[in-house]
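Page 37, continued from 36.
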């Protein structure tokens, strides 16, 4: 994939976790307590969190992302022989205050100043997204924060992506969707969005329907790609 310009874009819609917010930050902030287990915990936690969303969607057993996140953490702590109720509570609290990646605030403001609609479209529950947005101080640079909780099913269900179309009033082909998660990028492309895969972690390309239009390693150059200069 080459970095190229996307024409005719009227809205930039962002995945939240891993794209705007660092999902490893909660465990990293507890590194003094976790020692060399902090990164294995972060990776197990995130992996099970995603798997549980997909499996619950297939089972027709929806639970909101806060519950799923807690259940995934319980699995990860159990797998690593970590039994500490206070640490668990601290990790969950920190998940509401995940660090935003350094370029996020500036990029969102540049897009909005350039007349672009901006939104988050995430599996996160409203409580989680409101807390993360407030902690990062980016609420003023967003036109909408859209949660999959509204329809009680998770990405990659097409109905989740349709919510952005409906709430922003922008056709799929005029939406640039940004995600660091390759599975999400492919699903959004398959739905009909133009897609920027923010491959922060140097992942290989997924073998899934859809094909992201652009691959970046951060959001820094996004404004120029969607035609917003300055």
């Amino acid at each position: 994939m080459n970095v190229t310009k996307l024409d005719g874009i009227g809205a930039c819609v962002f995945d939240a976790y891993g794209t705007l917010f660092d999902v490893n930050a909660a465990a990293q902030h507890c590194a003094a307590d976790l020692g060399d287990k902090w990164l294995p915990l972060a990776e197990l936690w995130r992996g099970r969190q995603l798997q549980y969303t997909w499996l619950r969607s297939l089972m027709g057993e929806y639970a909101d992302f806060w519950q799923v996140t807690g259940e995934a953490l319980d699995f990860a702590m159990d797998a690593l022989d970590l039994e500490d109720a206070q640490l668990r509570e601290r990790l969950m609290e920190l998940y509401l205050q995940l660090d935003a990646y350094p370029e996020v605030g500036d990029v969102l403001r540049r897009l909005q100043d350039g007349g672009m609609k901006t939104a988050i479209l995430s599996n996160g529950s409203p409580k989680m997204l409101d807390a993360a947005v407030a902690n990062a101080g980016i609420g003023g640079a967003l036109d909408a924060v859209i949660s999959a909780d509204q329809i009680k099913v998770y990405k990659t269900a097409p109905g989740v992506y349709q919510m952005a179309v409906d709430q922003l009033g922008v056709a799929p082909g005029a939406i640039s969707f940004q995600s660091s998660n390759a599975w999400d990028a492919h699903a959004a492309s398959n739905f009909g969005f133009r897609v920027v895969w923010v491959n922060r972690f140097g992942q290989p390309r997924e073998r899934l329907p859809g094909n992201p239009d652009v691959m970046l390693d951060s959001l820094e150059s996004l404004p120029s790609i969607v035609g917003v200069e300055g």
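The longest helix spans residues 38-59. Flag for discussion at group meeting. Residues 25-95 form a domain with the DNA polymerase; domain 1 fold (CATH 1.10.150.240).
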